[in-house]
Specification:
Two copies of one chain form a homodimer.
Chain A lengths: L10 H6 L19 E7 L8 E7 L5 H7 L18 E4 L7 H6 L2 H5 L2 E3 L9 E5 L8 E4 L3 E4 L4 E7 L11 H8 L6 E2 L1 H13 L3 E7 L2 E7 L7 E7 L3 E8 L4 E9 L9 H10 L3 H24 L6 E8 L1 H7 L22 E2 L12 E4 L9 H10 L8 E5 L3 E7 L4 E7 L19 E7 L6 E5 L7 E2 L1 H14 L14 H4 L7 E4 L2 E7 L11 E4 H24 L9 E5 H4 L4 H7 L10 E5 L1 H11 L1 H13 E3 L8 H7 L4
Parallel strand pairs in A: 1-5, 9-11, 12-15, 15-17, 18-27, 20-29, 21-23, 27-28
Antiparallel strand pairs in A: 1-2, 3-4, 3-5, 6-7, 8-10, 10-11, 12-13, 13-14, 16-17, 18-19, 19-20, 21-22, 24-25, 25-26
């Protein structure tokens, strides 16, 4: 009794004896490097030969999640909580037996390798046999070609209960829970308040509404078909809402509008500054965000003809600042070094706590963030693009004032943020404007008949240049030789030689050289025209250098070269519009065949939809926090050297 | 792959091989019968010889709880959540190894039987060695001689954190949680809103406030000594509040008042009826209960000079109707057969949801109920009296309009409710009144000098008869022979023979025979006097018969005789005042030596205090739900026969 127990042991010996559960059960136990391979053999219920599929996941992920994240369906109604006992698989070799396994399988079956997939963690390579499905699961395609097996947090169960009697005095709650024994929710007070009345008015034929672990309501009759959720992409500039039918997995209505926080400033830094100047600014910014969400929710519910009281959950994907502001959390530490978040994973709150009037107990889900400048919107985007579920080396770039960069080599994932400045949003650009009607978004130079071809949003008279037009213009000027590799316009005398049809457009406003993209009338001087100035080119150079320095350093961290990148995903409302050829030409992305550069669209919104459609995907988003290594650039001594190297085209 | 898994297995074989965890991990797995014995050997830190103690608990209870419930201290700071890794014990024989054991002990220590007590379930008799304590735990004596080791749900931790830097960008939350690693709370939004500001204003020297699983606040500086809670005994008639200092385990202030629901009726049935007549009655009853709690909370905080914002938790012990009403739940199903509760365990809510203005995230805890008429007040009472932790055969009787009866033989526990009617509260009694000033509460007959001795509340002129006076009067009249065993006054001609000094007091009002207890003046007729009527005796007979039928049937269920009962606990504001001798004489309780009949006092309030002082005791209250068998009397065919048998004295 006198030997003081000290923490030392032979883990491997314990594992060999089956005494030690999988290490993945311990939080943050694995170091994010190395994966295990699961080889699934999926039997077909129609009698076709079994199909085979190998997937790689971080150690500790359950077999159920590994399958689910890769679109491989395994029977389940509880969604992986160990309560429905349906996700039966057979694995080869010795694996731990959970107490639910003991309740589900015979001794012979346990010896034969049968286990519940949701409780079995993959800690080594496994061969997994999946029996034929007893019910065909619904799936939806969202994100970048991601197949999501529907298993929303919002579940409804219609039940017809026995009336209570003196020989069956179970409480109302117990009677209900006994009838939905694949779920084990805790009741909200709201649901308990409704339960006795609704049960008796509806002759004990009711629908239980469960969100995640909570029984939030009980509704008379069968309302199982009516369950909805709203995915919000809470952008600094634009906010998009998608109303989802959770029973079908399909979008019902979409609406977007400018974030009502705009009057406080166009980017996150100006909004953070506002809260530092004025103690009233935080509540006002919070209200502005709430008003935006409320208006969009009303729009999509109206358009979809859905009762807001049947919206039981919302997911919000936003950057760290937008997330803090809508939750009423002071964003100040995000705005200054050392750039600290209050919490990587915001708490799950009631939708009413962020101002939404949906079902009174609707939940609001926020995405976790990897850092102050790689926020929940990027985690949602990683989910939508499957950054953690692809063997290829892929680069994800969300271009904006703050540019988020994620690199995966199929084993490890790195993320960082690069301060690109406002150039891509039209800020600090002479004729810059947002991507709205009248903005030049496409530029082609040097055609025989028409040396300057412009694509203009709304097909109207060009009024200015948006981000993608800026990239195009610079890329084209480099291509035709009017800009040299250092980003300088060529001397006046050289212009007619390299580009005779365009030389007259290279002129000056005051001392500064400009290239005229569009004259409102033939005699218009450069001051009246839409032009690209030498300084604009410099702004874009700085922006692209910040970004390419970011991914160059990430490539170096993983010991990779440009040519190792197999796919580039351009994300965000701006990134999706950039011409891949132009992006390559100015060096914004590594030099790749353009077909490997994919416009990924609004991936944050897609990730929010995935989280609403599947609790497994939601768990996947949380797992990214463990798996992704955040690389801080602002204290890198080599950053400035690399930055200078990256300035040239 | 074609053999469909079916649930069959050899549990014992699996247990022998250590593959099967303890069955107690499964909800409601044991049937409530049979216990296991744990023999503790507790080493003394001062060098004294070890002490030995054997306790019996239901199978599946953890070793830590088994010790804690019996006042045996084991080191722990997390309170049994498996997070602090301090509750080290050594057990003999083979027992399962948890993953926390693996992280805490060396292989040799595991072989040697070292385990964490909080994760080891007692599924068979065990020998447990407890090492000397490294810190002396605080304990408090509450309830009926119960020693409670202090471990409140409300925990405070003072920490001095490193400032963040570019090389340490942990979020504010992570930084805080890393510093209090024996707890793993989830943050409330409220705490996250306060966190960045408080951390920076207080130079990162702060106190984290944790309630149960939630981080509810962060306070500047060291506030660890300031933590309070309020225990409410929410009676139908009287409500009592006790403000507790959780750091010391001592009461700071106590206050009581009549329940403000009184205008709706004196008992639970009239209040339930009120909600059935008038749709506004439920919110008004809810508000009346809330007002009562609010006023008492203000009183005890004022008297104890405690800031209400430092009250972080309240516990409410009330019967099922009071609990439903204060939560705003329709009580109607409680009021009519088949007497069904909405939920046995009310949800944990915020104190603000029941109207209290304490710390904004203070929690309100409610006791679970065993049935519509054996509510949370009785479960609290069972906790305070240790009904489940005593080897003796004990009978617990809470006397009132509804009388709750609990019987334990040290292995099994049965509970029931008997409708005693209003006699004990002075209702339906000719000169009945509540136990207030002027009420006769003690009656002694047949003294030589003074044949009628009365004890009167407030020592004033007697105005009526309260419940304990009623019991005394009848018991004394039986003893002196003026009432026969059937409850009839003896014939007039017989009275002078059996009790010459009292015979003149046996007279009539109209046709009804009455016994005059007190004449306001020597010539006063019986109409002007305080009397006990024949009909009063009948009322008491019915009330006592209901109660004694209740415990008689419970004794039969356990195969016991009256004489097997080793202790009777008389509880409740009324029960505590009944004379044990009189209770025995009229047959309200089994025939026992009076010293074995204990007035237990306000056990509901004591139970509420215990739940606030110790999360282990709280878990014990929840465990009672599994362990106690509720016996419904209203559908027993033998009830009426027994009732008639029990009518005589």
């Amino acid at each position: 009794m006198t030997d003081d127990p000290a923490p030392e042991l032979d883990l491997d010996a314990l594992r060999r004896e089956g005494l030690l559960p999988a290490p993945g059960t311990e939080t943050a136990a694995h170091d994010g490097t190395g994966r295990v391979e699961l080889s699934f053999t999926v039997e077909d219920s129609g009698g076709a030969p079994p199909s085979h599929r190998a997937v790689r996941v971080p150690p500790g992920v359950t077999v159920f999640d590994s399958a689910s994240w890769n679109g491989i369906a395994i029977d389940s109604t509880c969604g992986g909580h160990g309560t429905c006992h349906k996700c039966k698989v057979r694995v080869e070799g010795s694996t731990p037996i959970s107490r639910h396994d003991v309740r589900t399988f015979s001794r012979e079956q346990l010896d034969d390798g049968w286990r519940l997939a949701c409780l079995l963690q993959a800690t080594r390579d496994l061969q997994v046999a999946v029996p034929p499905l007893t019910t065909r699961p619904k799936a939806a395609t969202v994100g970048v070609g991601r197949q999501v097996i529907l298993r929303p947090a919002v579940q409804k169960r219609y039940v017809e209960l026995d009336e209570p009697s003196l020989t069956d005095q179970r409480s109302d709650l117990q009677r209900l829970l006994d009838a939905i024994d694949d779920l084990e929710p805790r009741p909200d007070l709201h649901a308990l308040r409704r339960l006795p009345t609704v049960l008796r008015q509806a002759d004990h034929k009711v629908t239980a509404v469960v969100v995640d672990e909570a029984l939030v309501d009980v509704e008379p009759g069968d309302t199982t078909d009516q369950r909805y959720a709203i995915a919000f992409d809470l952008g600094t500039t634009t906010v998009v809402a998608t109303l989802l039918d959770l029973a079908l997995g399909t979008p019902v209505a979409v609406a977007s509008m400018l974030n009502r926080q705009q009057p406080f400033g166009g980017d996150v830094i100006t909004r953070i500054s506002a809260t530092m100047m004025d103690p009233d600014a935080l509540p006002r910014l919070q209200r502005a965000a709430a008003d935006t969400l409320v208006e969009l929710a009303a729009q999509v519910c109206k358009e979809g003809e859905v009762d807001p009281a049947q919206v039981y959950e919302v997911a919000v994907a936003g950057n760290a600042t937008m997330t803090a502001l809508v939750l009423g959390i002071d964003p100040e530490p995000l705005g200054m070094a050392p750039f600290v978040m209050v919490a990587a994973q915001p708490p799950s709150v009631l939708a009413s706590e962020i101002g939404l009037e949906l079902h009174p107990r609707a939940r609001a889900l926020f995405f976790p963030a990897l850092g102050a400048y790689v926020g929940g919107d990027i985690v949602a985007g990683m989910l939508a693009t499957g950054m953690d579920r692809d063997k290829r080396t892929r680069l994800f770039v969300d271009v904006g004032t703050n540019c988020e960069i994620v690199l995966s080599d199929g084993e490890r994932i790195l993320a960082t943020a690069a301060p690109a400045g406002p150039a891509f949003e039209g800020g600090a650009i002479k004729c810059g404007m947002r991507a709205a009607e009248g903005a030049i978004e496409v530029v082609r130079l040097g055609g025989a008949d028409d040396p300057v071809q412009l694509g203009v949003i709304g097909d109207v008279e060009p009024m200015g240049l948006c981000g993608s037009g800026l990239v195009d213009a610079v890329a084209e000027l480099v291509r035709v030789g009017l800009l040299d590799a250092s980003g300088r316009f060529v001397p006046d005398e050289q212009a007619p030689i390299v580009a005779p049809a365009l030389a007259d457009r290279l002129t000056r406003i005051g001392e500064e050289r400009v290239f005229v993209l569009h004259r409102p009338h033939p005699e218009a001087g450069p001051e009246e025209s839409v032009v690209l100035s030498q300084r604009d080119v410099r702004e874009l150079q700085f922006a692209k250098a910040a970004i390419s320095t970011g991914w160059t350093l990430l490539l170096e961290e993983l010991g990779l070269e440009h040519r190792d990148v197999q796919q580039v995903l351009m994300a965000g409302s701006f990134g999706s519009y950039i011409s891949p050829a132009s992006a390559v030409r100015i060096g914004l992305v590594p030099t790749l065949p353009v077909l490997r550069i994919v416009s990924a669209g609004n991936v944050a919104g897609e990730g929010a939809k995935m989280a609403l459609l599947s609790i497994r995907e939601r768990a996947g988003a949380a797992a990214l926090l463990e798996e992704v290594t955040y690389v801080e650039l602002s204290d890198r001594t080599d950053f400035n050297d690399r930055f200078v190297e990256q300035l040239s085209f």
